[in-house]
């Protein structure tokens, strides 16, 4: 992800850097459709899964 000129998404009232317009669009769609809790739950599940 580029550090200079990175795109910014406001997610849960916090600005976050995103790598591309696709990720920006996905985060906006998640918020606009009321899917924040589902997204965060899925993200937590993915981060806790080990592939070892």
TrEMBL record:
- Where the record annotates domain Putative metal-binding, the positions are 4-44
Q: Which InterPro entries match?
A: ATPase-cat-bd (IPR021993)
What domain of life does the UniProt record list for this protein's source? Bacteria
The name of this protein is Heavy metal translocating P-type ATPase metal-binding domain-containing protein
The scientific name of the source species is Undibacterium flavidum
